[in-house]
Amino acid sequence: MSTTTHPVLSPVKDAATAARLGRGRKRADRVARLLSLAATGIGLIFLVSILVTLFVKGFGAMNLSVFTEITRPPGSNGGLLNAIIGSLIQVALATMIGTPIGMLVGTFLAEYARGSAFGNVVRFVSDILLSAPSILIGLFVYQLLVLPFGGFSGWAGVAALSIIIVPIVVRTTEDMLNLIPNTLREAVFGLGSPKWKMIVLVCWRSATSGIITGILLGIARIAGETAPLLFTSLGNNAWSTNLSQPMPSLPITIYSYAGSPFQDWIELAWAGALLITLAVLLLNILARSLLRRGT
């Protein structure tokens, strides 16, 4: 029984049609590139103008009294010492509270709840919390801790900032643990190691740089939050480290001073904005360097 093969017919190439299609693709490519460059240029113009204004006005208002004097009435040559210390205390405590919770939840999602319905629900709630406006978190803590206890307090501000940092650490921890190959886990199990020891000594150690990066990004996020603190710690123009009372913070002081009619307060607001910007910039640079070193 003989078999006959039929040649596969290829489409006839029309040189004129191919040239026309090529010219159309090139025109579309040029238009797309021009639009992309124009959008990038517009964004950079706004960004550079904001940064230049901030650095010029911020450095112009920077002096030693900013770091050595507390906030005082207008014309008294006050500084931002109490606001800086208040922000450092609240951000540090929020990080110490939110980071372990975020790491444990992220570890649960990556190591124990893969593909489970409960894990999907937890992940969905974490993603919603990650994208929720911070003012809603401030209102939630206001109803939960401020109204029942009869007043604003630093602890309420710490709670609000802790809630904000948790989903950032959750997402980063889960993503970093998911990047670890399963063959590494199987090798550890093959040596007879329990799962908790495998997670702590192998997975966490392998994902250390990525997890630290997420923590630093979370600190950068909460360092400049104003809306949640308006409803929780409120602010204080005096020196105060008592977390049971209204507590000063740099974002609240900037918010209050920037809209004042007093020139010295406005200059302090620019100085405070520059301090926060530099702190966030340094944290982002550190996070990127750690992530690059880890990869």
TrEMBL record:
The lineage, from the top, is:
Bacteria, Pseudomonadati, Pseudomonadota, Alphaproteobacteria, Acetobacterales
One Pfam family name from the record? BPD_transp_1
Could you name the Gene Ontology cellular component terms for this entry? plasma membrane
Cite the NCBIfam families for this sequence.
3a0107s02c
Q: Where are the transmembrane segments?
A: 34-60, 80-109, 121-146, 152-170, 199-223, 268-287
- Is the keyword Cell cycle assigned to this protein? no
Q: Which family is this protein grouped under?
A: Belongs to the binding-protein-dependent transport system permease family. CysTW subfamily.
Gene Ontology biological-process annotations:
phosphate ion transmembrane transport
Know the name of this protein? Phosphate transport system permease protein PstA
Instruction: Name its species.
Output: Roseicella aquatilis
Q: Which UniProt keywords apply?
A: Cell membrane, Membrane, Phosphate transport, Transmembrane, Transmembrane helix, Transport
A Gene Ontology molecular function term of the record:
phosphate transmembrane transporter activity
